[in-house]
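Justification of computing resources. Each target in the renewal requires a structure prediction run like the one illustrated here; the chain below, 280 residues long, is used simply to show the kind of job we budget for.
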Amino acid sequence: MKSSATATEFEIFTQHIYQKLVNNDVLKPTKVEHNVKLQGKSGCEHQIDVYWEYEIAGNKHRVAIECKNYNSLVPVGKVRDFHGVLSELNNVNGIMVSSKGFQTGGKKYAEEHGISLKELRAPTRDDIAGEITTIFHINRTRCLYLIDEEYAKQKNLNLQRMRDYLALTDPKKADKWKNAAHIPLTLKERVIRNSTGKKISSVDELKAQLSEIMKPNSSQVFKFEDAWIETAEYGLVKIREVKYEFASEDQETTIQLAADIFVEAILKDAINGETLYVPK
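Resulting structure tokens:
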């Protein structure tokens, strides 16, 4: 429904949505009708925007809906007028539907006199109809390094500061990183050399040697006496070990569903705030 809909278009939209709701109900209602004339106790006819009857256990129920497609909140006077019409009818329950909402006085009056107030509108891109949460099971291998402590002291590398930074950026594993001996580093090249610059291995060659039967949350360590790597953060760094951790973990991803894709209308109770999403 377009925001610039006329009063009649809003009435027909309301009829359509309520027809859809009663069709999905366990009740066996008669057809929801638009623009019905009902005779009151005084003999006068009253125009009803949307009307339907349904039966439960042999008892007939009648509902009249008054539609207000205003650009502002419906005032108490309009709710009072509708109550006057209902008072003229025989055993007819009332629902007033607005495209924008109701003033506080109107809500109080309706609650006092048993009139249901609803806000009905088409959804927008900003409305969220719900969420879908998916859990992915991921197996991954992480490469970590044990930096030589004597070398770190000589170069003023604060290993604890590195651990604290990792804990800050990965809060779910903060306790692990604060006390970690092995930490991740960003390599400029994947080659491992000795102090003379000669290649002795590479991280890829080490990974190829990993056991094929590594279990989840297990690790494998390669030790070195004289090994150096070129890092992006700290330049040339002396390491004592390269550690591969095999982690198996679940990652949760939540996707929000835009209401305008799945929902035809949003029907909100103006008094208690309960919201119903009518699917397409």
